Amino acid sequence: MAQREARRVLVRGTVQGVGFRPFVYRVARELGLTGWVRNDAGGVVIHAEGEPGALDSLERAIGLRRPPAADIAEVRVEAAEMGPHESFEIVASDAGGTPTARISPDLAVCEDCVRELRDMSDRRGAYPYINCTNCGPRYSIIRALPYDRARTTMAAWPLCPECRAEYEHPADRRYHAQPVACPRCGPAYRLVVDGEVRSSGVGSLPLAAAMLSEGAILAIKGVGGYHLACDATDAGALLRLRERKFRKEKPFAVMTASLASAHGLATLGPVQVDLLTGPARPIVLAPARSVLPLVAPDTDEIGLMLPYAPLHHLLFDAGAPDPLVLTSANRSSEPIAFEDGDAMERLAGIADAFLVGERPIQRRVDDAVVGVRRGRPFMIRRGRGYAPASVATLRADRPILGVGADLKNAVALAVGGEVFVSQHIGDLGDLDTDRAFCETIDDLLGMYEVDRARLVVAHDMHPEYVSTVIASGLGAGRLVAVQHHEAHIAAVLLEHDRLAERVVGLALDGTGYGHDGTIWGGEVLVGSVSEGFRRVGSLPPVEMPGGDGAARFPVQAAAAFLPRVDALALEAEPFGFPPRFRQAQAILAGGVRSMRSTSAGRLFDAAAAVCGFVREVTFEGQAAVWLEHLAGGGKAERAGIGQTDAPEGWVPALVEARRRGADPADLAAWFHGALARWLVRAAAGAAAGAGCSTVVVSGGVWQNRRLLDRTAELLPAEYRLLWGELTPSNDGGICAGQVAMASCRLRQTP
Hints:
Elements: E1 5-14, H1 20-30, E2 34-40, E3 43-50, H2 52-64, E4 71-80, E5 88-90, H3 111-117, H4 161-168, E6 189-193, E7 196-200, H5 204-213, E8 218-221, E9 226-231, H6 235-245, E10 253-255, H7 259-265, H8 270-277, E11 283-287, E12 301-305, H9 310-317, E13 324-328, H10 340-346, E14 353-357, E15 369-373, E16 376-381, E17 390-393, E18 400-402, E19 412-415, E20 418-421, H11 431-447, E21 456-460, H12 466-471, E22 478-482, H13 484-495, E23 503-513, E24 519-528, E25 532-538, E26 542-545, H14 549-552, H15 554-561, H16 567-571, H17 579-590, E27 594-597, H18 600-611, H19 622-631, H20 650-659, H21 664-690, E28 694-698, H22 705-714, E29 720-722, H23 734-748
Parallel strand pairs: 2-5, 8-14, 10-12, 11-15, 18-21, 21-22, 23-28, 28-29
Antiparallel strand pairs: 1-3, 1-4, 2-3, 6-7, 6-14, 8-9, 9-13, 10-13, 11-12, 15-16, 17-20, 18-19, 19-20, 23-24, 24-25, 26-27
Helix pairs in contact: 5-9, 13-23, 15-17, 15-18, 18-19, 18-20, 18-21, 19-21, 20-21, 21-22
């Protein structure tokens, strides 16, 4: 018989709350090992004793057979001293030490629980809070690390004897599933109409489904906050929802009862299906099969999601319409409501009824939004299912907080060798959103017990950003300013573990404060996170009239590219420009209230105005989304415009072609192609000069599918193209890039 030995195995990553300890327990018992496994502040610790071959098998199993929701970042194996262990056990968590463990995101309800949910002979049949070790809420209910029931919002519900037996049995699927409960011992739902409880418990769900079928708008408490729900095929309900929510045209996401229903609404490839059915269950953007003008106007994409909470399955089973609009419960620009009292107050004029769950939500977590580009995920908004999962490993001697930008804000924290990125917070400048921003920072710093005196805070260079101002008041030991577009590129390189690699970065967005004090937004950068970046090119700068107002009125942006074109000619057919265009030209002529800008976002707005979008936008990026949709029906070669390589000539060329009678759809297609060709030339030239072969694209403009596809098609095969798959390309990813840039500066100047 081989000599027995002891090993200590330290596992870091998302390994708490995902069934990792029961998994280790079962494997260790199968292999005849003795010892123990426990959670600690850094992850999971295993002390195993046995023959070397069996110990090797345990280590292999950790990598190959781990639970589906586990995400292992590191496994360290050390020799250990033999102990008096007669069996293998799961022992109590060790709460000592500074927390560094990854917090598991909230997980979609698993198929085993769905089967029990629909089995009325099961004691959890039709119970809307059913869960097990493999599924259910995590981040939205945890109050402190390590992840144990006493540190969650379920602490107020003592387990009944049956649930206690499952919770304490290592071989059970619900062993140490912290939210575990049943109708006898757990929280329930109630339906509130006109301030009165209409029904409680299981009976509230059929009534809620009936109200939805009759055209009502319901506020439904979900995993990370409230949603507003209505029948996605009921025009009256949709119009009422848009009017009450002050959301005139921005697309809604819809939830379908099944994957088959989703296939009926959109063209879904393998990656979209994997995203829709995976444990994160985000909103997935996919090409729509038919136009749904009241759900997603002026776009050929639709945002789809499948049921991820038991409640969703029960509503559809009870007859709720399929599909349902399911949108964040707020008025436009406000954060999602997640506390019952606040929801009742803020949504009183929007929702006809409230489906209220008793389990408290510790923190708001909006739904994630993910697209697919060229067969790979393309993150648009981090949220439920992803946050606050680590996006990268990063060695830093001090904790670093990236506070992000003011639009689409999220924050990132580097601590214990990991970079954790928060859920989407929103656009700063609104009192409630600013409060949510501060709460999220306090939450992350408190969760990981960060000493603010040692904290480094990385922020945007713009001195007037709300995030910059708040950063200065956090009591941090050091502040580091990071240029906006460098942070965009750095976020992608951090995620792909390429901090030292020299790359060409194409950063395209609406606005960002540049090193020269002007507004950047169409940038060609060369360098690396480790050595820093140089600006080697940009879209030609223009004088942008009226500052931020140009982002709301595309014709105002158009004036920057057409400063001396006869306004009367553009007010006539076929253009129909409103007087604001002439007023913007007057601002430019007077030399006041304008700023120098290379913004790609405003270039898109100008092109959209020439092609017919002459009204005020009702949500950020609307004109560009409209132009992309328009281009889908056009052919660039029919535009009648030759090769116009100089960007400053594009908008005038569009004007002349439309005067000649060119179809706006053809002009939109030509514009996308012209920009893609310019970007590829700029990238190739910069790469040749810098001796590199990787091109990184980031910034909100790259959410444009057509532009990314055309750029990728034109880019020579010797170049590698990278974008954010875990971090958003829009400003939601800025925080991660700030952390990466700050970490390298700390190494250079401790």
